[in-house]
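Morning!

This is the sequence you dropped in the shared folder:
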Amino acid sequence: MKRAFIPVILTALFCSTCKNDLVVIDEWKETTVVYGLLNQGDTAQYIKINKAFLGEGNALQMAQVYDSSTYGNYLDVTLQRVKNGVTTQTIIMQRDSSVLKNSGTFYAPDQVLYKTTSPLFDDSEYLLTVTNKKTSHTVTSKTPLVADFSFGNPTTSSGSLSFTNPTNPFKVYWTSTANGRLYQLVIRFHWSEILKQDTTQITQHSVDWVFPTQKSQGLGGGEAMEEKFLGAEFYKFLQTHISPNNTVYRVVGGLDFIVSVAADDFNTYMEVNRPSTSVVQERPEFSNIKNGIGIFSARYVKIIPNKLLGQKSEDSVYAGQYTWNLNFCSKNPTSPWKCN
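The structure's back. Tokens below.
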């Protein structure tokens, strides 16, 4: 038994002669951090570009210093439109500090973004190039855009919505689009509130019913996709997410049907960075920035706005078993549920 301890003792003696200094700061290397999601449906595109920082001392304190993670005015940032392998346009992105950020780990409220209002086209890919004019350090990334697509139901021209059939589910369906991988439906319910003591005081409100994400099988588009629910689920959602308030009258508004789509790389980035649900906390890293880190990809949002409930479905908001106590009422003076 004594001999079993000899290697341990020898190892301890050997290590006692070793240098035990730990170097935690490596030689500095420029690391550019890029975050950008293009969406041709937006009026402006923004790219966030920062630098990684390294130094002795408290990293959290350094993060609160503006210059630690922010480049000066010496970056060239361009977007090149590439169609069928040919560059057809070069867009120079402008430095912009008009969008403030919330307080947090890094310096706030000022931040630098790079912006363009040039229209984008979903028949092309876009190449991002960021060059530091002082050091010639350059990072690049390329992404296709998520193409536009159509709803099958509801549509802008379809009639009012019916949620009163107790057994036949309401179906929302659309066709997947080119370069879209991840899809998520949100139904946004709008209503107005009128203060009982002063009916000139009217405020607007909304609540989002968020459905689980779903993936397309491929990136070519043309796949049938849908969400469905029984009408009772809609009224239960209102019951759960709107609190009773006897000081106001509530008037039913329209519903927006919103499908948000993430491109393939954006989907991968979100999957890699989602919170771990297992005891294994180590996860692979993902970045599609060449010579840097971060994500440059695309998304798209399709909206069918302001769809109105049919009369029976609206009446179920006023007097149904789930929402009768939420103070919704009709502005129609002949309605049995008129606002008093």
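Headline: The longest strand covers residues 180-195.

More detail when I'm at my desk.
O.
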